[in-house]
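## Example record

The block below lists the input lines for one assembly entry, exactly as stored, with component labels intact.
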Amino acid sequence: MKIVLLGPPGAGKGTQAKSICNRFSIPHISTGDIFRKHISEMTLLGIEAKKNIDKGLLVPDDITIQLVEERLKQEDCNKGYLLDGFPRTVAQAKALDNFLVKNNDSLTTALLIDVPKDFIIERMSGRRVCLSCGASYHNKFNPPIIEGKCDVCGSDVIQRKDDEESTVRNRLEIYDAQTQPLINYYRDKNLLSVVDGTQAINDVFKNICDILGREINDNYKE
Ligand code: AP5
Ligand code: MG
Ligand code: ZN
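Predicted structure tokens for the full assembly:
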């Protein structure tokens, strides 16, 4: 199962990705999480990525594409993976297509978590994340069991620097201009599935499982 997860910032991609990857035993590849890890370790890539991320801008395509291709070549991706936050531009989507064709492979689905803008600012302002394992929490909608500590790994959960309101607005503008076109890109390839992301976290997950179950059956019949 090879899934691309689409949706605006704060749609719940990271939240659902964790559950999907547990359920289907596939690796969760989040470019945002990979960049944040590099930033916390102050690698050269991290220093370069931080300049863009802190302003709400995208990291340049060449850096991002190379990073993802390297990751997809690792053995744990042979049976499938979920890409969260990649592709984010048409150039990235085309690079992924080329990579798949080269490997005689194809995507199972591009799953859009659909959430209107009004919901997003509230979700982002209450979000807290674990920098060690990437788990996402929300002060109101999904708090950790012990305040300030990650349920999964016990590390501190913190507010992301790019979750300040002005940066969130930039990210939403960039999403509209550069990432939204991917919805039609995948619709035209007959690969798009859409889930209503305004529902409660568990209900969104149930709908996603229904969609992925159908995709698995359809592929099986072929
Ligand atoms: P990235 O980390 O991917 O950020 P994003 O796409 O902006 O998405 P978010 O992580 O902000 O939101 P999410 O959809 O994962 O929502 P979450 O589950 O956390 O990227 C960060 C930056 O890195 C980019 O801005 C860019 O600079 C760079 N970058 C990354 N990939 C790149 C690429 N391919 N090319 C170039 N640059 C790249 O949920 C949000 C909150 O809502 C949480 O608090 C959660 O608990 C809560 N929540 C979730 N679902 C629900 C629900 N159903 N009801 C109520 N609350 C909910
Ligand atoms: Mg995320
Ligand atoms: Zn954690």
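The two ends are 15 Å apart (CA to CA). The mean pLDDT is 93.
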